[in-house]
Amino acid sequence: MYIFKGDVVRTRSGETGEITATWGVARAHAELRQDSDGRAVPIFQTEIVEVIRRGEPAKSKGRRHKA
Questions:
Q1: CA nearest 54: which of 1, 10, 21, 6?
Q2: What's the rounded mean pLDDT across residues 10-33?
Q3: 3 close to 45: Cβ distance less than 8 angstroms
Q4: 52: Cβ contacts below 8 Å, ≥ 6 apart
Q5: Mind listing the pLDDT tens digit for each residue in 43-52?
Q6: Residues 58/64, Cβ–Cβ less than 8 Å
Q7: Residue 64 has pLDDT above 70, yes or no
Q8: Count of CB atoms within 10 A of residue 55's CB?
Q9: Do the beta carbons of residue 5 and residue 55 sit within 8 Å?
């Protein structure tokens, strides 16, 4: 499962929150800002069971060549 910054997710333990950062290749990690108390805690991405809502897509910065 792919996790992106800004996604709202649910973990195995039932906690929900927003992903504020992701890192790692072989053992992917994420930083979860919990809805319950606002703390940011690091978690393994394997602990995430579902994506509740995707974050906003990135806006184009106008660098594409216009034909």
A1: 6
A2: 93
A3: yes
A4: 7, 8, 9, 10, 16
A5: 999 999 999 9
A6: no
A7: no
A8: 13
A9: yes
The more confident residue out of 1 and 67 is 1
Tell me, rounded to whole angstroms, the distance of Cα 33 from its chain centroid: 9
How crowded is residue 32: how many other Cβ atoms within 10 Å of its Cβ?
Answer: 25
DSSP-assigned letter for residue 65: P
pLDDT at 66: 61
54 in Cβ contact with 4 (< 8 Å): yes
Query: Please, is 30 exposed, middle or buried when counting C-beta atoms within 10 Å of its C-beta (0-12, 13-18, 19+)?
Result: buried
- Lookup: tokens for 27: 């053992």
Specify the pLDDT at position 34: 93
64/67 Cα distance (integer angstroms)? 9
pLDDT of residue 42: 95
